[in-house]
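thought: fold this chain, then report.
action: predict
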Amino acid sequence: MTIARVQTLTDINTDTKNLLGGDNLEAVGLSCVRDDRVLFEDLDFHLTNGQVLLLEGHNGSGKTSLLRILCGIRMSDAGSVRWNGEPIDILGADYYRWMIYVGHLDGIKLDLTVLENLEVSRSLGQASDLSLSAALAKVNLAGYEDLLGQSLSAGQRRRVALARLLVTVNRLWILDEPFTALDQSGITLFEQLMTQHTQNGGMIVLTSHHTVSLEHVEIHRIRLST
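observation:
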């Protein structure tokens, strides 16, 4: 098995780090086993403000499993994930208040309206200064506030999921195939939102089969392969 390593990332502007408290996400010796098969082992990386980490690899190589470990949804078989030097399983809510996860599924409730879905998301995190209607306008869903989730197309549901990123304050975005079901305009829009997030000092870890292009943002990569 070959696992590409990413070196410790230290090229972030010092002034930005000081402004945001020098947040960092660190993986130390992570290993993951599924169905008696080692997906990855001894995996280390360090990510800080303004940086993006793209996980690459074939289907079944462990990309989603790694994201779920970083979210605390799945336990690693060895090693630890640390936020600002502390294991996330010890930090608990003090980690989750700064992290948001958008997975393969959109995470919206089909029996709620678009606005109600965003209200639920906002109630679970720290509210941003952006109004719900403004967030929907940013993802080109102005006027859809009262539609039920079940009435939306797959692409529109994905845009609602992306709007969730805007209505709460989260320094770390963890995204599993975020461009799923989006047309080219949606992809371009989301790339702009990601760029803005990193320029504001945020961090992103993601997987994507789509070529990711973020203006003026250096994307670091880990390739998992079995």
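thought: worth noting. The chain has two domains: 2-98+171-225, 108-168.
final: tokens above.
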